[in-house]
Amino acid sequence: MSHFIRPPTKRTYLSRLFASMACLIGMLCLSSCATVRHWHSNRWIADYDKATRIADKSELELLIYYVDDRPGTQDKLRDLLQDDALRSKTEQYTRCKLLRSFEPDRRFVAQYGIDRAPALLVIHKDGTYHAIEGVVTSTNALEFLHNAAAPGVEPLPNPLVPRKAQYTWLENIDVAQQISKLSGSPLLVVYHRPYTKDWWRIEALLREFPVFKRLKNATHCRVGVGTPWQEAFISPFGAIRLPAVVLVSPDGAYRVLEKPTSYEAIVHFTDQNKVATSTPRSSAATGR
Question: Which class does domain 48-147 fall in?
């Protein structure tokens, strides 16, 4: 008895083709991921803003590896950083990897006197730095890191370096005050009128890096109060004209900036040495 074998249909051919392509792509991904995983196992952060925030919150200084990633170039420092002794030494830092081909990264390292890659840069807690360009042996890299102790050289800040301002906003002032007291950090309170452009205007000013640099370690709170037509508000910090920025020190003293129109005004406000000795009233006393 003969058996009829049905020839493959066009749909079967396409299914087999797509299955083969998926298998090939999967193998390529696994191969490339193994290489990426080998490098990222050392935990080098590819973002100077994120690395700076992590270093600020830890006891570790910031180490930046400036990579020569141009086509046709061989960055010998990358292989040197896999050396056991050098890798162990770099683990004593918050580590960041920046690329020569990326314009914001070039601007960032240029503040620290670097214009060639590969290079190593150590940024100390006091803001000074040590840098070395053209590292070719693990010996001079280790010697550099051993001798790179604060104080170092003062950088030349570039206001055109793109920076990311990321505030963690609380909406309840009582909770924000408790967190501020427990952490010992200053308290930043922004009062704005709801359903208006107050908040967007204030937020744009606060996101300017000279402002963010001064306020990033504070506890952040934003409060929408009153009505869109209300010009003033009775807050725990007294009568204020909206919108307003309030900065409260850990001991409870505060000062108020009403209707700021420029980020320079907020910078001047945060840099004032004289702080009012008033103590904020409880929210219950203000009818909130």
Answer: alpha beta
